[in-house]
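Forum: Protein Structure Q&A
Topic: Joint prediction for protein chains with partners

I've read a bunch of threads here and the consensus seems to be that you should model interacting components together rather than docking separate models afterwards. I'd like to see that in practice. Below is the full input, 734 residues plus whatever partners are listed. Could one of the regulars post the assembled result?
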Amino acid sequence: MLAPLPYYLILSAVLFTIGIFGFLFRKNPLIMFMSIELMLNAANLTFVSFARYLGSLSGQVIVFFVMTIAAAEVVVGLAIIVSIFRARASIDVDEIHLLKD
Amino acid sequence: MVNNVWLVLLFPLIGFVWCLLFGRLWPRLSGWIASLTIGLAFVAAVSVLIGLLALEPGDRIRIGTLYTWIGSGSVSVPLGILVDPLSTVMILVVTGVSFVIHVYATGYMHDDPGYGRFFCYMNLFVLSMLLLVLSDNFLLLMVGWAGVGLCSYLLIAFWFEKPEAAAAGVKAFVVNAIGDAGLILASSLILLTFKSLDYVTVFTSAKETLAVGGGTVTAITLLLLVAAVAKSAQLPLYVWLPDAMAGPTPVSALIHAATMVTAGVYLIARASPLFTLAPFTMGLIAWIGAITALFAATIGLVKPNIKRVLAYSTVSQLGYMFLAVGVGGFAAGIFHLMAHAFFKALLFLAAGAVIHALAGEEDMRKMGGLWKKLPFAYWTFLAATLAISGFPGFSGFFSKDEIISLAFTSDRGNVALGIIALVTAGLTAVYMFRAFFMTFHGESRVDEHVAEHLHRPGLAMVAPLVVLGVLSVIGGYVQFPGGGFTSFLTPAFTYFGVTPATESGLNPTISGLSVVVVLLGIVIAWAIWYRNPKTATSLGKSFGPVRAALLNDYGVDALYSLVVVGAVRGLGNVCSGLVDALVLDGIVDGVAESVRGISVGVARLESGYVRTYAVAILTGAIVIIAFMARGGL
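Posted by a regular:
Agreed with the consensus. Here's the joint model:
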């Protein structure tokens, strides 16, 4: 017997909030990436929950797209982080603000 | 034969287009083609005259439409041509004199690099003038009027490398623009009053529509007068004509004799049905003419440049024509116009031959004693000088005498006008013979180097001199027997209900007086400038201040540059210093500054810190979600 829909949504909201705060308050870009993954998966959870609840497959299909994008994003992001680290021997995001002005 | 009139316009057009296309390629050929086309136009004009003479005098008016130029609702402006004695006389004078000048110019301009361009302008000039005199409505008149102004600018500034020539061209154009404004306003007023610009419609209904001396007709005629004064170089707008001497001499001849300055007199004669309804304007015209005649004649007494003396004599003679039409002698004015065209073209061409011979020298103080070396120029200049002075038997005598006696005896004339005209006749003799004696008699003051290389005029230059010389002598006899010219011209005015003031035959008293005055003038000139040239120098010294004033045109130019040019320049300074610098630049700079300020403010948002962006995205997302949760708008 499955739990009712609100439980899934609450779990998803909690996960998403953890992701937000993790992203906002940690300085390490690796952790920030993990937070992003958390937010994406919270969204995924919402999608599948509704898909199941509404008996529609499209929500589940979108989850596959999200997972693909997440994988691609991590690949690019990690590559950037590595090259930044090579260049400046530090990956503290507060020190990386070349876009200013 | 009257229907041939379109050929009069076609030939100069062909010449113009030819010179425009091939003038640079084959300059010599183009010069001859330009002259030939004007000659053919003259032949066509003669055939029009023959056709007109075959008609009954009262029926000598024909109107033809080449095509409808502007057709818009109730307004229809055809490219219409009016042939009557007045326009026929004008096309004969214009094409005839222009042809002679063209032939002369083929010799005079021989070495000029702009040879083809010169004839291009010349033909356009003649074409514009023919359009002006042949038009049957005020709008087409305006086209010719503006075309003449444009060509005068192009030709006066023909040697545009010389700053004074370029400046003189601009001056002529600006002064003429004042007249153009007058003509445009007058035409607008006519269109408003008569709902038509057609001469026949306007002139035939003028008497019923307008009250004699009423405000409308006075306004129309005053505006037309502004146009005529600017074009015909009368006071106070004469200033462009003396400066126009900066152009080549054939151009001066063309402007003075045939194509340009006579347009004002023609306009007044053409619009005589309107002018006769405005006694105030007529009086003004007569006085402007008389004062200009006297004014310019006195200046002519002292100018050292031979072409400038001739320029002031033109202004003075045009004053006579204005006086004539002002006292109602429209036919007399046109008669003098024709006589003047002959002898003034001749004077300029003869002076041009002298200038050509002396390699461009125009100062009479560096001439003298040329009568043996340039016999053709000498004898023809003498003939023209006698004609312009009004020596008995020469053309100017008949035409000028008629004007002087009309100034005395016409209904609109009075003794004061007559006396001014008489005095001016004497002055004319003095200053013309002064120029004659200084140029051809006395000791040679020519530069030795120049004297050795005297350029003798070729056949192309001598033949026109002879033709015009003959015309200057016999031109006056068209009036015989029994006022033939006047009675030919009169139907053009009576057709519209205007009776020009005429003098039946010569008035013995006034003729006698004027002959005495002219002879006296010649004797005075002879005594001062021929018998003993030192008299002139000592006279100049004893009348120093007067001489200085005359040399400076009574300060008219200085006054204009002070009042008009100063005022315009002041306005320009206000515009550039105040309006442009503060208002316009303020607006433009203000826009730039405010955009810059905004962008600086916006750029602050771009901190470069990833988390700032994250917060911004989050905030945005929350706002959007909250908005959607509220159910949209």
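The mean pLDDT of chain A is 87.
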